[in-house]
Specification:
The chain has helices at residues 4-15, 20-27, 31-41, 43-48, 64-77, 98-111, 135-138, 156-164, 166-177, 208-221, 242-251; strands at 78-82, 87-94, 117-122, 125-132, 178-189, 192-204, 226-230, 233-239. By secondary structure, it is α+β, with helices and mostly antiparallel strands. The strands form 2 sheets. The chain has a 4-stranded antiparallel sheet. The chain has a 4-stranded antiparallel sheet with strand order 5-6-8-7. Strand 5 (178-189) and strand 6 form a beta hairpin. It is elongated and about 85 Å long.
């Protein structure tokens, strides 16, 4: 017999993405017991959760700014996986950016306060993860296959949120698939070669639809951009004009 605390500790390990087999080996609890506990302890909590998109009539998420940011992260480095009884959202964040990991976790908590958020350590990155039946409701871009191999388009209600919080979407996209770098060049001035440095932003994604969404949103906030191509395929969006970089610095900034 196991007490309730023991059961909860074991189920927490399972909720972090561990397999029943690995949790069983670590705790000495049989997989049969773990599976039975899942069925007994979790359904009541799941049934109590609410979803703005499932309500009648559907409503926008409670925290629109957090949703717009999380949407950008999801379109960049996120995915939704269907499990036996629920769905899992995970966003991969490099270990080099602890501030990004914290911001991603906070956004998930604000968008789905009913659900727990976990950090699952992987080689070189952390998967910020949360389980909910309602992730496909909140991110209808979910589907089979890779994002760049299927059509990605925002629903009208999502576009309304992006229109209201464009910088949050841009920040999420840049924090996932973009960067702020410092370029340099040299020039002859008065017979001496001098080095000049200037910052710029890059955003790269294989999905033409996501690139177009990023560029449209940059247009909305008055940021000038240029596209570079791999052959005939658009791949990288560059922001290098001083005024536009200054705008990006105010609202986006470098990852940390």
């Amino acid at each position: 017999m196991y007490d309730l605390d023991t059961r909860k500790r074991a189920l927490t390990l399972v909720a972090q993405g561990r397999s029943l087999n690995s949790v069983s080996k670590q705790t000495g609890i049989s997989r049969w017991c773990l599976r039975a506990w899942q069925q007994r302890l979790q359904p009541s909590r799941r049934c109590a959760t609410t979803c703005e998109r499932c309500s009648s009539p559907p409503r926008p998420p409670a925290d629109l700014a957090a949703y717009s940011y999380l949407l950008g992260l999801y379109l960049g480095d996120g995915c939704i996986s269907a499990l036996a009884r629920t769905h899992m959202l995970r966003v991969a964040c490099a270990d080099a950016w602890p501030g990004l990991i914290a911001a991603c976790e906070q956004a998930m908590r604000l968008v789905r306060p009913e659900n727990k958020v976990f950090r699952v350590q992987r080689v070189g990155c952390v998967n910020v993860t949360a389980y909910s039946n309602h992730w496909p409701c909140l991110f209808p871009q979910h589907g089979p296959g890779k994002k760049h191999e299927r059509h990605i388009a925002l629903e009208p209600w999502q576009q309304e949120i992006v229109d209201a919080y464009p910088w949050e979407l841009i920040r999420g996209l840049v924090h996932s698939d973009g960067c702020r770098i410092t370029n340099w060049t040299t020039r002859m001035v008065g017979g001496q070669r001098k080095r000049y440095e200037y910052p710029r932003y890059f955003f790269a994604n294989k999905s033409a639809d996501i690139l177009n969404l990023y560029c449209r949103t940059l247009d909305q906030v008055g940021v000038e951009w240029k596209v570079t191509r791999r052959g005939t395929v658009p791949y990288n969006i560059s922001v290098a004009r001083r005024a536009s970089v200054e705008l990006m610095d105010v609202h986006v900034g470098a990852k940390h």
